[in-house]
Amino acid sequence: MSTDLETAVDRTGLRRVVIDPVSRVEGHGKVTLLLDEAGHVHEARLHIVEFRGFEAFIEGRPYWEVPVMVQRLCGICPVSHHLAAAKALDPVVGALQVTPTADKMRRLMHYGQILQSHALHFFHLSSPDLLFGFDSEVGKRNIVGIAEAYPEVARQGVGLRRFGQQIIKATAGKRIHGTAAVPGGINHHLAPEDRDALSAEADAMVAWAQAAVHLVRRLHEADPSLYDRFGRFESSLLSLVRADGAMDLYDGQLRLRDAAGTILRDGVAVDDYMDFITESVKPWSYMKFPYVTDMGAAAGWYKVGPLARVQNCDFIPSPLAEAERRAFADYASGTIQHAPLAYHWARMIEMLHAAEVIRDLLADPDLVRGERMAGGVRRTNGVGVIEAPRGTLIHHYAVNDDDLVSWCNLIVSTTHNNQAMNTAVREVARQYLDGHTLTEGLLNHIEVAIRAFDPCLSCATHALGKMPLALELRDAGGTLVDRVMRHP
Questions:
Q1: Is position 148 annotated in a ligand binding site?
Q2: Is 74 annotated as a binding residue?
Q3: Which is it for strands 236-241 and 302-303: parallel, antiparallel or unpaired?
Q4: 115 is in an annotated binding site
Q5: Does some domain include residue 451?
Q6: Quick one: CA torsion of 422, 427, 432, 434, rounded to 10 degrees?
Q7: Which InterPro entries match (predicted)?
Q8: Most buried by CB count within 10 Å: which residue of 2, 85, 316, 479?
Q9: Any known ligand binding at 77?
């Protein structure tokens, strides 16, 4: 048996089990397991089977189209791509620093996105597993089942997501695929009537987000043997942090912390990401495998997203979320929490932080007046990095003298977590499936581990030019006539 379960030593005689598609995640992926006659697992892989190739679509387009175009990467987190692209293209119009009004409008839009995405993931997609059990009746594992059994939880979850969507509509112009962030700033102010309507609900959203944190915390405290062990593995943590070490989901510098909690790299400028991160490819997935370059592929991979961010920052600059961060740290006696299910707890802490930031920002007069655009000496390329709901999101563009994008590179949040998700799948296969008769409930354990990362699989497929390709020709009866393989 292969010790790491990535590739079986000998596939002869092994049975193939496929989970296709992985459900209740954004995008399309599948898991394959290779088992012997006794049910022992020899190989477990999370495959990303979609291909998007947005880096190629962008090349040759006018740069000002990009913040709108790249949102089509995803229907769940378009705001993240919209803002990362606008940030990357700010230097192209000479806006090395945008105006206070533009900065605050973008931040409000971004924290609205964090709020709605975290609420959607937890209440709609993952809470059925956590509240009913991983192997509960499959027909109940959905938001309708939650609404029947836990009506107040469902009501607040739906309400939190609605509020986040309203923030996005008010700032971006539309709930999905807005147009407000442009290179150099923002194209409108927040309308006073929108500000007043949102402010009227802000305190309730903070209270509901705090209740969600307490709900997840109670789940951990009630069953630590499950929540602390399920799919657990150790890795480094990567995220943006503010210059003073605070959590900042919109801007900052890169920080890498090792599995024991020691800061390995700090203050890495986002413009230097290409010297810091390398992406490798494997022949069985369209999603790349990033790692810290000088640590190598075997030791340099890491986690991103809420579990990394909550433990990578020194503090959260909003009082209620900071108190919950401290409780989170105390639960693990100050050590790093690595269990994938802790992502949900960290995610709800971030949702609370987002609700607090939104409430406070709505009182800022710069949102409804002030200069919207900045400019200066133009540059030919720019890097925009943001902490999207699922993790660190990097956009990088070069623009030629004709104002056309000549080169583009995207490292999407879920891509950073590729190795981590595969490792979680293998740990769960080892802990729960190996040697057992497979049932739907047991296979759902694999999906529970993947869902904990809240992957956005359609965003994350970017192996253009290096991907393997298999082309099969079959006749009307399904018989294979010819097969052509292209290897990376």
A1: no
A2: yes
A3: parallel
A4: no
A5: yes
A6: 90
A7: Ni-dep_hyd_lsu, Ni-dep_hyd_lsu_Ni_BS, NiFe-Hase_large
A8: 85
A9: yes
Question: Into how many domains does the chain fold?
Answer: 2
Q: 75 and 164, same structural domain?
A: yes
Q: Is 408 annotated as a binding residue?
A: no
Q: Do 215 and 336 belong to one domain?
A: yes
Domain shared by 44 and 107, yes or no: no
| Helix 151-172 with 342-361: angle, nearest 10 deg | 50
| Predicted pLDDT at 20 | 83
For 480, the domain range is 15-51+431-486
42 near 13, Cβ under 8 Å?
no
Tens digit of each residue's pLDDT (9 = 90 or more) over 33-47: 999 999 999 999 998
Same domain, 471 and 326: no
Question: Which residues of the chain are under the pLDDT cut of 70?
Answer: 1-3, 50-52, 458-478, 482-488
The residue among 417, 443, 471 that closes a domain is 417
Which tokens go with 110?
A: 């971004």
Q: For the whole model, what pTM was predicted?
A: 0.92
Can you tell me the distance from the alpha carbon of 322 to that of 213, in angstroms, rounded to the nearest whole number? 12
Kindly report each contact of residues 14-17 with a partner whose C-beta sits within 8 Å and lies 24 or more positions away, as own/partner: 14/42, 14/43, 17/438, 17/443
Is residue 351 domain-shared with residue 455, that is, in the same domain? no
- Phi first, then psi, for residue 280 (nearest 5°) are -105, 165
CA distances from 228 to 218, 329, 411 (A): 13, 13, 30
Q: Are residues 37 and 163 in the same domain?
A: no
In a domain, 4, yes or no: no
pLDDT for res 458: 65
The reply to whether 351 and 404 lie within a common domain is yes
For residue 281, give both structure tokens: 């490819």
What average pLDDT does the structure give for the chain? Answer: 92
Cα(118)–Cα(121) distance, integer angstroms:
5
DSSP 404: B
